[in-house]
Amino acid sequence: MYERKTLPNLNCGLDLIGEVLYGKWKIRLLWFISQGHQRPSELQRKIPDATRRVLNIQLNELEDHELITKKIYPVMPPKVEYSLTDFGKTLIPVISALGTWGDKNEEHLRSVILRRLEA
Amino acid sequence: MYERKTLPNLNCGLDLIGEVLYGKWKIRLLWFISQGHQRPSELQRKIPDATRRVLNIQLNELEDHELITKKIYPVMPPKVEYSLTDFGKTLIPVISALGTWGDKNEEHLRSVILRRLEA
DNA sequence: GCAATAGGGGATAAATTTATCCCTATCTGA
DNA sequence: TCAGATAGGGATAAATTTATCCCCTATTGC
Questions:
Q1: Inside any domain, residue B32
Q2: Distance CA A63, CA B41 (A)
Q3: d(CA A3, CA A111)
Q4: Omega of the bond leading into A77 within 30 degrees of 0 (cis)
Q5: CB-based contact, B1 to chain A, within 8 Å
């Protein structure tokens, strides 16, 4: 595994939340889990642009940060279900606010983002 | 400048907001600007862990994404002031929600983050 | 003249994050 | 028996982001 060479900043609330939410797919993972998509293969289908590998890594981090828990059913073929912890649940309204803002401003955002990419 | 080799996902609101907020210091920049710290050197003092270079780059991105505007006063020594656009202002409550959640859960967050770092 | 302040950016190195590729295991259905 | 579903991870490459270093403008104060 990759080992950090520099310590993260943990000064304020923004640093702290950043530390657990940074990661390309983490917010979406939390969101889809909150929507009832609990199994890894379901999440993978919901987020087809991510590779399975990265989803696993980010799920592990979310688990380490106690935002989700993992239940492994000892059956074959394997069955695993992720759920939000109570702590993780408190984050959903915040994520929802992010998504709502993005949706509300979709057109404008799309245009400024694309303009910058093409420039 | 670095040129992207892959296109970002712009499917949903979460993708869109992510595209304009990702960047180690962007949220803090928006926050401090909203608090009245408008000049580059002030922002640098508020965020001493970032190098001046990165702050400039991220400020430019925020400007391209129309979240902030830049006023250059033609005086010497130079004077520059950043302000939130009306669009940028709509983001402040969302950022505030992030910070509040982080502050409220500070102890728990600090402990799980540090635990993972040391493991 | 030199240092400090103010603001900015090119070139490059280092750090970090994502993606790719490949391998493990077992069961079901064609 | 081979394909596909299910879940997971090591090793490594590629992409991306941050950091470092150095250079520029011009003014004020020592």
A1: yes
A2: 39
A3: 38
A4: yes
A5: no
Q: Has residue A75 got a pLDDT over 90?
A: no
Per-residue pLDDT, B75: 86
pLDDT of residue B80: 95
* Domain presence at residue B1: no
Q: Does B118 touch chain A (CB under 8 A)?
A: no
Provide block-wise average pLDDT over 10 residues at a time, chain B (119 residues): 90 95 94 96 93 94 97 89 98 97 97 90
pTM of the model: 0.92
Chain A neighbors of B95, CB-CB under 8 A:
14
Q: Indicate which CATH number applies to the domain containing B71.
A: 1.10.10.10
Whether B6 maps to a domain, the answer reads no
Q: The domain containing residue B89 runs over which residues?
A: 13-118
Number of folded domains that form chain A: 1
CB contacts under 8 A, A 67-86 vs B, are none
Say what the pLDDT of residue B74 is: 85
Classify residue A2: in a domain, yes or no: no
Cα A9 from Cα A14, distance rounded (Å): 10
- The residue behind tokens 């939130």 is B84
